[in-house]
Structures are given as C-alpha cells and as structure tokens.
Amino acid sequence: MRAVLFVLLLAGCGPKVHLEPSPFDVDDPRAAPATTTAAPTFDELPVVPSGPGVREGEIDRTTLTAVLDAGPGELLRHLDVTAELDGQRFTGWRLVALDPAFQRFAGVDLQPGDVLIAINGRSISRPDELQAVWDGLRTASALICDLRRGDGRLRLQFAIVDTASTPAAPPGG
User: Fold this and answer.
1) Considering the entire predicted model, what is its pTM?
2) Which alpha helices (DSSP H) does the chain contain, by range?
3) Domains and CATH numbers, the chain
4) Which residue has the higher pLDDT, 133 or 46?
C-alpha cells in the first residue's frame, strides 16, 4: 500500500505533458529572414588596381634565408605597424610606414595604410603564429601576402627560387 501511494505521489509531482504544440514550435508568419551585418570576406573584396610597385616575381632562397636567420625583430625594425581592429576583433597589421633605407621592399607594391591579413594563407595575429609562418618560409615554394588596401584587396605573390641549385657552366666552355 505504501508503494502504491509513493508511486502516485511521484506521478503527481512529475512533469506535466501537454499534447498541444508549444508556441515556440510554430514559425511566426511575421518573422523576416535573418540578415547579416558581417564584413565581406577577403575574397569577396574587389581587387585593387596595381600601384607603381610589383606584385609578382621571384625571391632568391639564399637572400630569404639570410633575412630569416636575422629573425623577425630585424625585419620589424624597418616597418612601423599597428594592430587593425574591427571592434574588439583583430583583422590584421596596418602598415604605418616603411623605412626608405631598407631596400628589401624597394619596388614592391606596398604603401602606408595597407593591412596585412595573412602570409601564405595563415594569420599572424599572435607571436606563435608569426613564428610558425616564419619557420615555414624556410621550405616554402612561395611567399604570398594577402593585404587589404582601402575597400579592396591585393595579393603579393613571389616564387622562392633556389638559384644556387642551377648548374654552373662547365669549365672551359
């Protein structure tokens, strides 16, 4: 008898089951489709017309290795950059100024205001990401920089070539 009373008590305290649909299960006919205010992705931006510098070419691996051996700090001494934020979200590194005496960027289509988004498809928002990209350049076949300029995008693409591996002319001609 006590067991029956206990079961009835539990059944009375259990959840109530309603067979009619919940108002949350029915779509509101007044609801409009959701829209997004997200910024366009990099590939959706229009391509910026070419500037006075080059966007494609070749980099000698020996020259690149010398830059990599000097470390990121040496390269960054010649660049004035600041973090580019969209609200609280990091979007890239804005180039404030280039050291005119630093010849490695001479002739490249870079200008103050450009925002570096990625190198070889990888973000460099944190120091560990920069180091991973830096180390990866030792064996990479290309250096590809995705940049935003104003409301558009541009890509700097340089093949990394092993000029030392080109066979020398045989002695005596």
Assistant:
1) 0.69
2) 2-13, 61-70, 72-76, 127-136
3) 52-163 (2.30.42.10)
4) 133
